[in-house]
Amino acid sequence: MPLPTNLPGRTLLLFNHDWDAIGHARALGGIGHPVDEDGFDLFSFPSNVQLAFFDIERWVARLARRAGARGWKAVASHNEQFGALAAALLAERMGWPGTPVNAVLACQHKLHARQVLQQVAPEAHVPFALLDAEYGEAVPAGLSYPAFVKPVKAAFSVLAREVHSHDDLQRHTRFGAWELWVIRRLVEPFERLSRQRLGPDVPSAHRMMLEQPVHAAQYNLDGYVFEGQLHPIGVVDAIMYPGTQAFMRHQLPTRLPQAVQDRAAEVARRFLAAVGFTHGLFNMEFFYDEAQDRLSVIEFNPRMASQYSDLYLRVQGIDLHAIGLALAHGLDPAGLPRAVPQAGAAASFVYRQFNPNERVVMPDERQQQAFARTFSDGLLFCYPKSAASVARDHKWLGSWRYGIVHLDGRDETELRQRCEQASELLGWPAPYAELAAASPVFSREASFQPSPLNVSPAIRT
Known about the structure:
By secondary structure, this protein is α+β, with helices and mostly antiparallel strands. Among the domains are: about 10-105, Rossmann fold (3-Layer(aba) Sandwich), CATH 3.40.50; about 125-210; about 345-460, no CATH class. Helices cover about 35% and strands about 20% of the residues. Helix 1 (about 20-30) packs across helix 10 (about 320-330) and helix 2 (about 55-70) crosses helix 3.
């Protein structure tokens, strides 16, 4: 899905890591378009030390001062924590095409987004309430359980889980001094801007919220808005490890009926119009309960779901990163030609550990080379972590995501066969329910137990 060769000026890419680094290199590789990069990696030391003194407004102002000398004419970022907001701020300041800042804030402030959704698409919202306690404070009595608790502002499903009692919620919201510092540093840039832009009546982002739990299949609607018009791209099925809220794989093509996809797109159209989202890629996470024929929105992400770009390219010939770059330059993505699809099915397979007392062995160089030889079209990501980081993942996420593999096949059957073969090469249990459940690193019960920060053994990689 090639971009035009005459893109004006240079493009600035912010927080360009992991799938974005791969996707942008793929989309720009054939046209030789010059780019610059900025932004630190939140998940790598020592890069993430910059979090201690990061000021998003000051950083954007510095980028704006450099723009003329560098010849930047566009900015793009699909990073949830800081990138999408920073790109919107810089585009606004420079007069470049971009997603409106207030629309990004409205989507990322999960409580505010719920309030908007309740007004414009009441059939797709779930009951919700602000948890009347700041981080670290005692949980109020008299709440109804079970409840789904999540931060008003967060990313990557951090601290989002179902709780079943007052004590359960109290344990889940206990944080050490270091954890509280990290949470506040991650949220404070957003808090300042949301107060300025959305108004003083918007609840603080340094809080958590409660929602009525929904137990149904989960999906993702991906699309973009250009000149105020919404254009759906497709739907990805998000399949969970059984009995958990943890992704096991993300798969195309979807099994969701077209009529339900159309309903999802209509909900997205109403919500995005209400928050002033007139330009950019978006991702809407939602449940669909087939028995009740009910669609329930989880949240809106005001950026591309980068993990899905490779899947859409394999199955539909659509390159989301090329679309993102076109939008950054104010070009209509409808004019981009499609690539020839190479597969009938593709998935992003997520490998997780649910029992922090079990050891995970990372594939060695020989195993990784064997994977590369056997699956030349595959992608492999390994996420080794220290014992403290693994323990924090279990507390904040309920599991440790130690690897991801992207593969495709002629159909679902071949896709599964290739996944099982790849998993055997890597020494990991394949992310299919009956296979993962048989592994010692999968424990359905463990996924619902808060993990103390001192229980994980050393993890050898």
